Structures are given as structure tokens and as C-alpha cells.
């Protein structure tokens, strides 16, 4: 498997993790600050991994 494709797959997994954390809110309290922060960090990591994977493939 090419390294760029692996980075894009990793970006997809990280994006799925960010979505999962974002959707895991409490019924009455909503999202906590830690959930928002961690989902944001995972989203940025997913975007960086996907962008670098695309650039490696090109």
C-alpha cells in the first residue's frame, strides 16, 4: 500500500472518531468542553493527514 493512501485512510479513521465523539453528547447536559476540544483536535489531525496523503499521491 502506498504511504499516501495510508495517510488518507488514517485521515478517514480520525474523521470518524471526531464524528463519534461529537455525536456522543449527554441527553440533558449536552457536550462537555473536553468533548468539543478532543473532537476539534481529531478533526484537525484528520484534515492534515488527508491533505498530506493527497499531496503524497499527486
Any descriptors?
58 residues, 79% helix, elongated
Detailed description of the structure:
It comes from Geodermatophilus aquaeductus. By secondary structure, the protein is mainly alpha-helical. The protein has one domain. Helices cover 79% and strands 0% of the residues. It is elongated and about 45 Å long. It starts with a helix and ends with a helix.
List the helices and strands and how they pair.
Layout: H1 3-23, H2 33-57
Helix pairs in contact: 1-2
Summarize the structure.
This protein has 58 residues and is mostly helical. Helices cover 79% and strands 0% of the residues.
Mean pLDDT: 91
Largest sheet: none
Helix content: over 70%
Q: How large is the count of helical segments? A: 2
Shape: elongated
Amino acid at each position: 500500500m502506498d504511504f499516501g493512501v495510508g495517510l488518507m485512510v488514517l485521515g478517514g479513521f480520525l474523521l470518524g472518531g471526531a464524528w463519534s465523539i461529537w455525536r456522543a453528547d449527554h441527553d440533558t447536559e449536552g457536550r462537555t468542553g473536553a468533548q468539543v476540544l478532543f473532537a476539534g483536535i481529531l478533526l484537525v489531525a484528520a484534515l492534515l493527514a488527508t491533505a498530506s496523503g493527497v499531496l503524497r499521491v499527486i
